[in-house]
Design goal:
Chain A is of the alpha/beta class. Chain A is about 45% helix and about 10% strand. Chain A has twelve helices and eight strands. In chain B, about 40% of the residues lie in helices and about 15% in strands. Chain B is built from ten helices and nine strands. In chain B, the strands form three sheets. In chain B, strands 5-4-3-6 form a four-stranded parallel beta sheet, sandwiched between helices. Classes of the chains: A alpha/beta, B alpha/beta.
């Protein structure tokens, strides 16, 4: 328990920790492999974090990645290297860069420092809204939900952490059986929510989610994700991406409605707003 | 002689007391990207996040509260509106337990009409001209005993909108200028009155759709617009009125910058 407490407390400034590493030893420039399913958020975030710490950064992206995402990553000063659009090419290109340039690989989710950074969401949220009884959070590889679960359960053990998934991830079955039941090789889920396409939870994330999250998982279809997004856009005037729409859909669901009435104060993690405004799901595509 | 009603910052502060428990203190956003691109520090007052989705909630609620607290409160309120004021008035009336009817032109977006009905108000459709709006509105007021709350040409509405200016200056005391989109002029009047009292050096600038010609009018010191009042062709459906109001005009002529930002929005 004390180990995970330390883990949660150190999470405050994980990017500053990277800079701290830098002062103790030689430059540790960072490298990230942009996974084919990724919405680009991790690539952008890492480029920004590296720029903030004055470290070089290289992001590997599949050659069919939309230009707008590549430009966003370059905008933060990172180098972009293209690879073929498959996991093997991605991993090989990434490994090659890491060894050639002596860079450190930072994955998007299955890394304790990354999880700790995401866990700061829960520290902040509970400070802002101490009366939360539950938090709904979307999961792809599970970096965010792991970090949030660790932090939240440390601060408020009775709080319930619910995972929200796209239809096809089948997480509830895995959690109830306590086993990774997903097929190999790793698959992508067919969902409009670009940020949550990975079917499997990461190897580090799975035991954390198994031990700390609720077994009930909220599954969302594309239509429900759209409804969640539309509510945010139209009623809240907030621009959110698909994964966030999924969490709103979970909040709207009959399943949540039927749950324990003592869950009065429910946190909804709107994890990102990087939506392509020319490709909003319910609108016709805007031609350039 | 300035010829204007003496709406003062005190009216704005009273408005704030009436409405503050019901309206949001909206956030102020900044964008380093925008500042770098456009060469100054910009502060975006997010009234798009206000109750009912626009700043109009402030003026409407202040006006309705004054009526409700008056000696003989009316049964209800009525107005004509392209949408935002109608929504705001419907909401404000519901907050204070009054009935509400909103006269809307037949080309109003459905989402706005649904929102108005969602607050419990009655919609009455009119032709898409300022004259039809006003005539229908007065008729409904007479028939139902409802008090007319105009979208801008009323001291309580102007004072309500002015709370926006007071709030903004409290949040960002270093503001040197405020850019305000303008239709009838209720918001820019209210903001200008607040600014004059709280920070006299601050410059208030009107932003208009191309064709409103406010700068010409301000420099001439005269209302040069053609009659009857027209709507402009613009995608910005909230700022289609060509003319400034009659209560707002003298305030704007006295307090607002003569340089007007004219934006092509058609």
């Amino acid at each position: 328990m004390s180990e995970s407490r330390e883990f949660a407390v150190m999470s405050h400034e994980s990017d500053i920790r990277l800079a701290g590493l830098e002062t103790h030893r030689n430059f540790d420039p960072v490298c990230v492999c942009q996974t084919t399913h990724s919405s680009g958020n991790h690539g952008q975030a890492l480029a920004w974090a590296a720029q903030h710490c004055g470290l070089p950064c290289n992001v590997i992206v599949p050659r069919n990645t939309p230009t707008v995402k590549i430009d966003a990553i370059k905008g933060y000063g990172a180098d972009v290297t293209l690879c073929e659009p498959n996991p093997t090419s991605r991993a090989e290109t990434c490994a090659a860069i890491c060894s050639e340039k002596n860079y450190v690989y930072i994955p998007s989710a299955d890394h304790y420092d990354v999880m700790a950074g995401q866990g700061t969401i829960a520290l902040e949220f509970l400070e802002q809204v101490p009366m939360l009884d539950a938090i709904l959070v979307a999961a792809s590889a599970g970096g965010m939900v792991s970090g949030i679960a660790c932090a939240a359960k440390q601060l408020k053990p009775e709080i319930k952490i619910f995972v929200v998934e796209p239809f096809g991830k089948d997480l509830e079955r895995c959690l109830r059986e306590g086993k990774r039941l997903w097929p190999e090789p790793p698959q992508y889920v067919d969902t409009i929510a670009e940020g949550i396409r990975i079917q499997q939870l990461g190897k580090l994330a799975f035991p954390i989610v198994l031990s700390l999250a609720e077994k009930e998982v909220f599954t969302t279809t594309n239509a429900q994700i759209v409804e969640g997004m539309r509510f945010a856009f139209e009623r809240m005037k907030v621009v959110i991406e698909g994964a966030s729409g999924a969490v709103i859909a979970a909040a709207m669901s009959k399943r949540l409605r039927r749950m324990d009435g003592r869950l009065r104060h429910v946190g909804v993690i709107l994890c990102g707003g990087n939506v392509d405004i020319d490709h909003i799901p319910w609108l016709p595509t805007r031609e350039a | 002689m300035s010829g204007r009603l003496t709406i003062t910052v005190n009216d704005i502060l009273k408005a704030k007391n009436r409405i503050h428990s019901c309206v949001h203190t909206t956030p102020v956003f900044t964008s380093s990207t925008f500042d770098e691109s456009y060469g100054r520090k910009f502060y975006f007052k997010a009234e798009n996040l206000q109750k009912t989705g626009s700043f109009k909630a402030r003026g409407a609620l202040n006006a309705v509260t004054v009526l409700k607290e008056g000696e003989s409160p009316p049964k209800g309120v009525v107005t004509h509106s392209s949408g935002n004021h109608g929504q705001a008035l419907a909401w404000a009336a519901r907050m204070r337990g009054l009935q509400c009817a909103v006269v809307a032109p037949n080309n109003s977006p459905n989402v706005k009409l649904d929102a108005i009905r969602g607050y419990g108000a009655d919609i009455v459709i009119c032709d898409p001209t300022p004259t039809s709006r006003q005539e229908t509105c007065h008729r409904i007021g007479r028939e139902r005993g409802f008090h007319f709350v105009p979208p801008y040409d009323h001291p309580d509405v102007i004072a309500g909108q002015g709370t926006l200016g007071a709030e903004f200056l409290e949040q960002i005391p270093e503001l040197d200028a405020i850019l305000v989109p303008t239709s009838g002029g209720g918001m820019v009047s209210g903001i200008a009155i607040a600014a004059q009292a709280l920070k006299p050096d601050l410059k208030v600038f009107i932003v208009e759709p191309n064709g409103k010609d406010v700068e010409k009018c301000l420099r001439a010191g005269e209302r040069l617009w053609p009659n009857p009042p027209r709507f402009l062709e613009t995608i910005a459906d909230g700022i289609r009125l060509q003319q400034l109001g009659h209560v707002t005009w003298p305030i704007i002529r006295e307090l607002v910058q003569k340089d007007v930002f004219s934006v092509v929005l058609s």
